[in-house]
UniProtKB/TrEMBL annotation:
The chain crosses the membrane at residues 140-158, 165-184, 190-206, 213-234, 254-276, 288-306, 326-351, 363-383, 403-423. It is found in: Cell membrane. One of its GO terms (cellular component) is plasma membrane. Belongs to the ThrE exporter (TC 2.A.79) family. GO terms for molecular function: transmembrane transporter activity. Coiled coil: none annotated. Keywords: Cell membrane, Membrane, Transmembrane, Transmembrane helix. This is Threonine/serine exporter family protein. It comes from the Bacteria. It comes from Heliorestis acidaminivorans. Pfam families: ThrE, ThrE_2.
Amino acid sequence: MKEEGSSEGIEAEGLFLFTWERQCIRALDKSLTLLIRSGRILMESGAEIYRVEETIVRLGKALHLKEVQSYCTPTGLFIGYTHDEEPRTAVRRVFKRAINLRRISEVNDLARQFSQGKMSVESALLQLENIEKQKEPYPWYWQIFCISLVAAILALLNGGKGLEFAVALLVSGLLRFFMFKSKFFMNTPFLREFALGAFGMVLVLLTKTMLDVQMVPIMIGLLLSAFPGAYMVNSVRDIVAGDLLAGAIRGLEATGLTVALFGGAGMVLATLGNGYIEEVTTKASHGFAMEMLFGFMIAAFFSMALNTPHNTVLASGLAGLIGRSVLVLTILLGSTPIMGMFWGTLAVVILSEIMARYYKVPVTLFVIGGIIPLLPGLFFFQATYTLVQGDYVRLIEPFVQGAMGIISIGAAAAAITGLVRFWKTSR
């Protein structure tokens, strides 16, 4: 037998300690990789900042990391924890930002299963890799068709008829196909929205020279189908969750994208289109049943364009149907469109909260599509039209109406989100 304290025993003990330390370091590296990758995927997919932070903290606690903290901005991840009584920090930049509802839903489900002890770190990392690599639920050409159909239906809702529907569908399809193939525009925020507005107006003007169509419904459909509604929803939800900086940044980003979108259309309109455009009106000629159907179709197809999971498509459409129905009923009862947007959004968010718990997915999967049929696109286009004509007095009314519409939508979303968060924390 070897004597205790012999050189061979000391070497064996040292080798064991070295191997144990390396295993601990590897386990810590895997844990940190899991936190960073899950947070990065969520942020690149357009999740709310508070959701990213809560997911990282939940995973960190499940990994038994000490004093896990997470602070995120729309462009960066900051993760803090304690190891061997020493505070450590991991920082990662986030460069890509888009909206992908499928990835948000799957990472949310992974975090829930992992926190319940249903999978190992290795399995979670492998699943995250699969989430990034697997094909989207809808091919690119179907997404282009979906967003083009949304533009066409929105043209109908804003006074268009069959010809305007067909032109909006065709023009939006051509425009989206060009943007999809042009990586320069697709990967450059603000320039992308400016190009969508400008090129869209050019195509509509060219169509106007050949066909007797109403330009206004077509352009409203094109612009609203590109409206950054997801950023607006995330801004409100982040502010309610207490992430004031992230919420303010997201709100500023949504405002900038909207200005770029309508600004691109306005510049082309001011340069080429004053002789072609007709007076902007609020006339609509659809029955209540058709309004409900349009609301359903807009929300469902818009959600599919953002890669929502297959099993949530009908629920997303239901949110749009309810929201549009409440808006129309409010107006029929003699109230203003602004109040209709408020009550419609209230109904959409309440229903979305219920469906999110039923399907066990993030509530944004239903809210984003549900508010699109409620957006005040006509007011903003009226403001753009009067601005390019230099009629600054008439500019004030539609601009204030559009701004109040957005504020009413945000206020309704904030009210329900705040009540739900209070209920969850009080439990």
